[in-house]
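Field log, afternoon session.

UNIT: design team B
ACTIVITY: writing a sequence onto a fixed backbone
BACKBONE:
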C-alpha cells in the first residue's frame, strides 16, 4: 500500500489486502459450497473468513472467475448479487436497513462503497426528475465486467424491493451489446433494458426514489449512521485517479503532474495503471466522457458550452474527441440519451 512523508494522494492497489474476509468473499464461499463448487482460492477465503482477516481484491476476483467458470449458467451473477446487500457489516448494514427511502439508501451505499460495493464503485447523479446510479470499475477487470455489473445491479434491485416491499420502475443501461438472450436480466432486474449505452447505469424517477419506505425508522437510521465508521480514506488507484481527474478536467491534467500529486514517478504510475489493465489517457478520456454526458444531458449545455467547459478552445476539436471517446458526435450523443430517458410511459 502506498504511503509517503509528503502526504500524496492515498490509494491501494489490486494486490493490497483491504477487503474484509468475512464480507462478500465469505458469501461467495457459502454459495459455492451449496453449489458443490470448489473455488481456486477456497483455502485463502476460508482462512480469512474464519480469522476475520483481510484479503486482496485480486484474490476475491480470482475466486469469482473460478465460480463463474464452473457455474456458467446465466443467472449466476444475479443470484450472487441478490445476497450482497445489506451485508453483515454492523452499523453500516443497519443504517442501510433503516434508510428512509431509496435515495438515502443509494447515498449511503455510495459513501461506504469500499465496504458495501468494493469491486464496482457506484456514483450517484441527482437531477430534478431522476436519479442516475452509474458504476465505475475499481480494479480494471474487463473479463468480468459484465458479471460484476449484473451482480451489483441485482444487489441494489433486491435490496430496494425487500425494503420497499414493492417493485421499482427502473431503467437499466448497459455499456455492452445486447446479449443473445436477456431472459435473466428481465427475471432479476426488469424489462426496461437499454444496451449499447455509454454507461452501466440504473435510472429511476425522483418521485420513486424519495417515496418513504414502510419499515423506516428515522431514529434507528440516525443512530446507525452516527455509529457507523467513517468512510475509508484509501480508495483504489482507479477510483482515486477518477476523482482526481474529474476535479481537474478544466485544468487539462497531464501524466507528469498527476504522478507527482500521487507521490510517484510517471513511469511508476504507468506501471501501476498497466497492472490494473489501463493507462492514463484511457482514464482521462473516461472522465471526459462522463463529464460530457452530464453536461449535455443533466445540465442541458450545447456542444460549444461543453467544449468550453472541458477546455477545448475549438468546438470542432471537441466534436472529434467526443467521437473518438464515444463513437458519435456530441449532438447525436445528447439526442440518443434524451430519447432513452424520455421514452413514453417512463419518468412521466
Amino acid at each position: 500500500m502506498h504511503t509517503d512523508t509528503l502526504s500524496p494522494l492515498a490509494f491501494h492497489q489490486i494486490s493490497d489486502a483491504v477487503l474484509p474476509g468475512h464480507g462478500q468473499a465469505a458469501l461467495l464461499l457459502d454459495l459455492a459450497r451449496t453449489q458443490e463448487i470448489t473455488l481456486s482460492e477456497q483455502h485463502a477465503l476460508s482462512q480469512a473468513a474464519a480469522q476475520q482477516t483481510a484479503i486482496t481484491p485480486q484474490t476475491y476476483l480470482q475466486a469469482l472467475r473460478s465460480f463463474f467458470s464452473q457455474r456458467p449458467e446465466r443467472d449466476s451473477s444475479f443470484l450472487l448479487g441478490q445476497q450482497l446487500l445489506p451485508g453483515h457489516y454492523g452499523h453500516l448494514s443497519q443504517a442501510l436497513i433503516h434508510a428512509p427511502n431509496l435515495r438515502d439508501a443509494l447515498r449511503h451505499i455510495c459513501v461506504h462503497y469500499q465496504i458495501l460495493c468494493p469491486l464496482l464503485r457506484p456514483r450517484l447523479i441527482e437531477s430534478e426528475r431522476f436519479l442516475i446510479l452509474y458504476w465505475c470499475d475499481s480494479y480494471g477487470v474487463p473479463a468480468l465486467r459484465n458479471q460484476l455489473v449484473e451482480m451489483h445491479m441485482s444487489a441494489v434491485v433486491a435490496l430496494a424491493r425487500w425494503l420497499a416491499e414493492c417493485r421499482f420502475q427502473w431503467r437499466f443501461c448497459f455499456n455492452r451489446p445486447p446479449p443473445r438472450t436477456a431472459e435473466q436480466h428481465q427475471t432479476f432486474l426488469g424489462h426496461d433494458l437499454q444496451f449499447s449505452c455509454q454507461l452501466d447505469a440504473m435510472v429511476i424517477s425522483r418521485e420513486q426514489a424519495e417515496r418513504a419506505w414502510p419499515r423506516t425508522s428515522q431514529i434507528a437510521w440516525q443512530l446507525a449512521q452516527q455509529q457507523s465508521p467513517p468512510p475509508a480514506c484509501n480508495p483504489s488507484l482507479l477510483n482515486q485517479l477518477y476523482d482526481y481527474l474529474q476535479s481537474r478536467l478544466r485544468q487539462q491534467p497531464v501524466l507528469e503532474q498527476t504522478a507527482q500529486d500521487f507521490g510517484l514517478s510517471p513511469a511508476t504510475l504507468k506501471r501501476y495503471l498497466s497492472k490494473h489493465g489501463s493507462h492514463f489517457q484511457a482514464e482521462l478520456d473516461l472522465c471526459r466522457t462522463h463529464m460530457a454526458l452530464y453536461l449535455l444531458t443533466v445540465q442541458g449545455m450545447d456542444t460549444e458550452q461543453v467544449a468550453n467547459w472541458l477546455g477545448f478552445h475549438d468546438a470542432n476539436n471537441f466534436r472529434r474527441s467526443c467521437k473518438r471517446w464515444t463513437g458519435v458526435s456530441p449532438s447525436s450523443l445528447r439526442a440518443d440519451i434524451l430519447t432513452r430517458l424520455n421514452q413514453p410511459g417512463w419518468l412521466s
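LOG NOTE: DSSP finds 18 helices and seven strands in the chain.
NEXT ACTIVITY: expression trials, pending approval
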